């Protein structure tokens, strides 16, 4: 009898010790809800951070959701539907211009160039931007970064977007590629992997890169509300460190290896296409090599917005950009 009592007591004591430890283990994982503006190979380092467990290594349980469109992504962040948003930095400027008392702060840059390409319906051996004059150009939605960068690049090459060609920009983002495939336009501005798929299927031919032409710009950045950052500094730092680990990994690995890692996020895209897209973005320097959003990039962003007539007012770099965490994890 005494033996059974001792055994039972030992078992009970063991459970009392193990259960709190297990509970503590769960409590250490900090949940972070991330809203991404779209699902895109352009954001490869983010998916690498998830698949390779870099967020988990930092004690973070990242819940990623796609909220189609910059307005919906920002709404999710502002309404506390998300803790962190992955979206274009111009959205933080729009929010600040509306007089928000809790500004949205850019803290970790993911992509540093535009991610669109100029696709021609016909194959062109020696492309020149002047070839767009007198043609029908199927652009992106007015007010968005793709459209602003598109017009910026056209003007850079001496082309008046509203005078030298027929500019169509009233088609929803999701339907632009379909419209071109069905015969609308001589040229179109497309994201990957659609641009590469069209080229592979003979529906179009990539003739130029808007990312290469527009220079470095904080095209897609992780951001959060100032109030969240102040209350969760350790979490933001851990998140940024995981992003930096992923950025380093992508730079060191081949496009093929990166494609294999992120393929679960793109089940409808074949591995060869994913690899082609990653190689193209990597070769033109679209993936930021560190999470630091610098002053020059911020100024270039506002210049592009201003040129497009979409800048509500110049916003000081230090008001909406915090590089404290990015600089710390990049040392």
TrEMBL record:
Family: Belongs to the bacterial solute-binding protein SsuA/TauA family.
Main location: periplasm
InterPro entries, per database record: SsuA/THI5
This protein's UniProt keywords: Signal
Protein name according to UniProt: ABC transporter substrate-binding protein
Highest taxon of source: Bacteria
Protein location: Periplasm
Keyword Cytoplasm on entry: no
Species for this entry: Peribacillus cavernae
Pfam families: NMT1
Signal sequence bounds: 1-25
């Amino acid at each position: 009898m005494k033996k059974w009592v001792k055994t039972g007591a030992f078992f009970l004591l063991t459970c009392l010790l193990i259960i709190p430890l297990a509970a503590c283990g769960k409590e250490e994982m900090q949940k972070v809800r991330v809203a991404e503006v779209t699902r895109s190979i352009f954001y490869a380092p983010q998916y690498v951070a998830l698949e390779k467990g870099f967020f988990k290594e930092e004690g973070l349980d990242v819940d990623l959701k796609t909220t189609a469109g910059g307005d919906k992504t920002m709404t999710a962040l502002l309404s506390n539907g998300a803790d962190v948003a992955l979206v274009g930095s111009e959205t933080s400027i729009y929010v600040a211009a509306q007089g928000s008392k809790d500004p949205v702060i850019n803290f970790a840059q993911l992509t540093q160039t535009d991610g669109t390409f100029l696709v021609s319906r016909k194959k062109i051996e020696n492309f020149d931007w002047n070839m767009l004059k007198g043609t029908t150009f199927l652009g992106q939605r007015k007010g968005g970064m793709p459209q602003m960068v598109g017009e910026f690049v056209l003007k850079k090459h001496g082309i008046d977007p509203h005078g030298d060609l027929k500019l169509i920009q009233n088609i929803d983002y999701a339907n632009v590629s379909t419209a071109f495939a069905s015969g609308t336009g001589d040229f179109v501005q497309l994201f990957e992997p659609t641009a590469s798929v069209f080229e592979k299927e003979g529906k179009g031919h990539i003739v130029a890169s808007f990312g290469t032409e527009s220079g470095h710009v904080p095209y897609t950045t992780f951001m959060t509300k100032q109030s969240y950052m102040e209350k969760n500094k350790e979490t933001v730092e851990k998140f940024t460190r995981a992003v930096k680990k992923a950025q380093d990994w992508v730079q060191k690995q081949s496009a093929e290896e990166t494609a294999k890692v992120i393929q679960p996020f793109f089940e409808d895209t074949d591995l060869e296409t994913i690899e082609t897209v990653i190689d193209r973005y990597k070769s033109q320097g679209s993936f930021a090599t560190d999470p630091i959003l610098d002053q020059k990039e911020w100024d270039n962003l506002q210049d592009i917005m201003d040129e497009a007539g979409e800048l509500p007012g110049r916003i000081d770099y230090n008001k909406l950009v915090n590089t404290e965490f990015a600089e710390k994890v990049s040392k």
